[in-house]
Amino acid sequence: MSATVIDGKALAAEVRSRIGTEVAALREEHGIQPGLAAVIVGEDPASQVYVGMKHRASETAGMRSEQHVLPADTSQEALEALVAQLNADDAVDGILVQLPLPDHLDPRPVQELIDPAKDVDALNPYTAGRLAVGDPTFLSCTPYGVLEILEHAGVDTAGADIVVVGRSNLVGRPLSVMLTLKGRDATVTLAHSRTRDLGEVCRRADVLVAAVGRIGLITADMVRPGATVIDVGTNRAADGSLVGDVVFDEVAEVAGAITPVPGGVGPMTVTMLLQNTLEAARERRGLPRR
Ligand code: GUN
Q: How far is the CA of 44 from the centre of ligand 1 (A)?
């Protein structure tokens, strides 16, 4: 293997420790304890795992964490009523409604209802719009984690050719916008399922981000030698193990640096949720973000 393996777990531990210190200082100096409320509807096992991780991580960082578990047959009205209640609760700084919701529920009005000042998951269209006009409030957690990883890995994004594969609202689309903001200044290509000759497009990349959710999507022949490869995919293999979108073993022979799955982007997603909750708590009380 020639690539440097980027240790997202170690970076996450470092950032979480810094967040924990800032939370302790906020409590001591201002009597403020940041609070995160997570809402989960139904019993999707992956969602339960994710929300459990968010809950434990926020408590470990010294935050207040509440989980609202609603039955799978919850009505749209009941879910929206809960979000309205959390909007009105001053002890709640951040609200997260875990996706996916059961099929009978429409996530969009729920996301639009979340108070933008508490939108730590950054899925309210207002929050997305602020990012799109270059004046972001909160950055969605996974793309924010990717930015932190690139910075930590010493990747200079200015003028770099960055190819993001996958145009989801959760990852690909917001990440492509973040990378083009002033200060990051990348030349971004947002590739997707209709992209012609994906391999040729990917081979142009100084930084290649895979965020589709398909096992085996990125193979070694699609990677420019020395490129940085960020694997956002979290897929369950037939044997139950967690695998990314990148064929790790062969791509690691070509890439300059690569994130593994697990232990790459995943731990940073949860970490940046904590960061957003801390920022929300400060801002809601008129304190500067940092
Ligand atoms: N489901 C998978 N990832 C996420 C996320 O970042 N936020 C929410 N709300 N749901 C998700």
A: 12
